[in-house]
Design a protein that fits this description.
two-stranded antiparallel ribbon, 12 helices, 64% helix, elongated
Length: 347
């Protein structure tokens, strides 16, 4: 049997440090999204109050809003909208993740063969190792390509889904490592964090767009310096904010993938199974590029699942992409992930 790590030399890797480092980065990113979202709300409030107080400077308006001398109406409404939107998204997210696929749920009673029963037992083992209180629901997606994802905003709502191709082509240790990766997403609350960040990013852009077009078509103008200064800021942010949000979301996604890889090593106590699984998944996508390209493209809502997958199909050239480096990728490159796991390509 081919050893998929023969082309790699093993070096040291501190998965505990990787977990701490990436967790710290994650909360910085989430904090930035929250500050941006509140900042847009305050910007709208300042723009509206600038008409009522034409002599007030921008610092005066900002100070009055954050000290509640002027009530930040729009900011508070935006926070309420975000909270309601998050609750609705949490309730529907699991169903959205499986849309467009042919799938069935596995339990010990409904497993159709030994492979499915083995998968259920592997998830159960990793659930115990991860210290989760609830058993995630386990789904098989009827697809030849090798991939998997986790979903659920809490331990109680957690689910893992794995394609039939991945289940059949990995050995037990590799399957265990992949499930450890997915349950690490659940344990680290990755789904909740990434969904929150995405929602805040989208809502902030929507509000900024409304403000931008209101400013463009507004008949009010004149010598109001504060309002004119705000108009210039809005104009710049209208084109800059979407780029900033995309880069932050992609960085957040890559960070959480690296954390899940480190979490898999923590749970399985070995870096080799996940490394060989990632190499197998990558090589399988390259070998069956045309077949899998058709499969992915003919399966609805794959864009919803792309960020959640353990392996990004774009990395193997399944679809055309304008990405020129990891800066514009949802996942770290295979090389970067293997290096973090302690394996470097031999020269």
């Amino acid at each position: 049997m081919t050893n998929h790590l023969d082309e790699y030399s093993q070096t040291g890797a501190d998965w505990r440090a990787a977990l701490r480092r990436n967790n710290h980065r994650t909360y910085i990113i989430i904090g930035l999204f929250f500050l941006i979202y509140c900042g847009i709300g305050l910007l709208v409030d300042m723009y509206l109050y600038a008409s009522a107080y034409p002599r007030a400077t921008l610092p005066d308006l900002f100070k009055a809003l954050i000290t509640f001398q002027l009530f930040p109406v729009v900011t508070m409404i935006m926070l309420i909208i975000a909270a309601v939107s998050l609750l609705i998204s949490y309730a529907l997210y699991d169903k959205l993740m499986l849309l467009g696929t042919e799938y069935h749920e596995i339990t010990p009673e409904t497993a159709r063969n030994n492979d499915e029963l083995r998968l259920y037992h592997v998830v159960e083992e990793m659930k115990i190792a991860a210290g989760l209180r609830y058993m995630p629901r386990v789904f098989i997606i009827d697809a030849n390509y090798m991939n998997a994802f986790a979903s659920g905003y809490s331990e109680k709502s957690a689910m893992v889904a794995i394609t039939r191709g991945l289940m059949e082509k990995l050995n037990r240790d590799e399957l265990q490592a992949v499930m450890a990766h997915e349950l690490s997403h659940v344990r680290h609350l990755d789904i909740k964090l990434t969904l929150t960040a995405s929602l805040l990013a989208n809502l902030s852009i929507m509000v900024l767009d409304i403000l931008f077009y209101n400013m463009i078509f507004s008949s009010r103008s004149g010598e109001n310096r504060s309002r004119n200064s705000l108009a210039a800021i809005i104009m710049v942010l209208r084109y800059l904010l979407p780029i900033i949000n995309v880069l932050l979301l992609l960085y957040l996604s890559r960070t959480r993938e690296m954390m899940a890889d480190a979490g898999a090593v923590e749970l399985t106590r070995s870096n080799e199974p996940l490394a060989t699984a990632l190499i197998k998944i990558h090589d399988d996508h390259v070998e069956h590029r045309e077949e899998y390209s058709a499969d992915y493209q003919h399966t609805l809502h794959e864009t919803v699942r792309r960020e959640a997958y353990i392996f990004d199909p774009l990395e193997a050239g399944i679809q055309d992409t304008t990405s020129i480096n990891d800066l514009f990728s949802t996942h770290p490159s295979l090389k970067a992930r293997l290096k973090a796991l302690g394996f470097n390509k031999k020269l």
